[in-house]
Hints:
Blueprint: H1 7-15, E1 18-20, E2 26-31, H2 40-53, E3 59-60, E4 66-72, H3 76-85, E5 101-102, H4 115-128, E6 141-144, E7 158-168, H5 180-184, E8 190-193, E9 196-199, E10 219-230, E11 242-243, H6 250-267, H7 274-281, H8 283-290, H9 299-303
Parallel strand pairs: 5-6, 6-7
Antiparallel strand pairs: 1-2, 2-4, 3-4, 7-10, 8-9, 10-11
Domain 4Fe-4S ferredoxin-type: 164-194, 195-224
Keywords: 4Fe-4S, Iron, Iron-sulfur, Metal-binding
InterPro entries: 4Fe4S_Fe-S-bd, 4Fe4S_Fe_S_CS, NiRdtase/SiRdtase_haem-b_fer, Nit/Sulf_reduc_fer-like_dom_sf, NO2/SO3_Rdtase_4Fe4S_dom, NO2/SO3_Rdtase_4Fe4S_prot, NO2/SO3_Rdtase_4Fe4S_sf
Amino acid sequence: MNKKLTEQEIKNLKGQGYILQNDREHFVCRVITVDGSLTPEEGKKIFDISAKYGKGYASFTTRLTVEIPGIKYEDIPKVRAELKEVGLYAGGTGRRVRPVVSCKGTVCNFGLLDTQELNRRIHERFYLGWYDVTLPHKFKIGVGGCPNNCIKPNLNDIGIMGQRKPKIDKKSCSSCQKCAVETSCRMKAAKVVDEKITIDSNKCINCGLCIKKCPFDAVQLEQEGVKIFIGGKWGKATRVGSDLGEIFTQEEAMDVIEKSILYYKENGVTGERFGEMIDRIGFKEVQQSLLNAEILKRKEEIINRS
Length: 306
């Protein structure tokens, strides 16, 4: 790196997704994958860039962005231009909404929703749409397709988890000697009591596995949607997200995300994570604000605050 960069220039580059390596000579380019997937054309371009300007390899981060290490400062404009040729761009850092992470619920046998499609919607509306909105700290969103919790949505600032809530039709229960519903329940929430299947709502995690198990349709779908956790984070001081306590539609979840970001923007202190703000203010108060639409009326006012 021939040019001596100022700390502000280094900070600005980091905000654009070009992070100075510990050798203080080269940069890592963090490429956004949107939903954790790449087309053959996009993948080829990333590895071509790595061969031409980097160290000849690329690696995935824990949040499914792709990093190309070993880029010289003077090559950054060329890298940016070549990424643009296939619709890719760098980013994913700073005090803003970060790239969204989703599991493979789209194709997984346990997936209860199209996680990647929802990921793309969230990315478009909140990562791109709110990119210039500065928040107190980073804000991470995770989308999990079911309660298997593979991408740990409850360890994100906002976590979304697919849900299928079962209900019992006791009239349809035939009192089978070996109940397929009871056998299929890994949480031991489904139990035969007095020759009829029952579900303990305190143990049930709404995975939906039991719904298709009864040949007599004694277990049916009552509600389908997503659970939302708020304020989770990993790292040195892990905080498990707090459950908002309802099953939401995907459209409702999009609105909850927006209200959460607005609330954080308005009430958070610089350097304070969303979960830390919740602990300071109190979960009940934050929950109440996120379950009504009042804050949306002040959206423009909140966004435009310095």
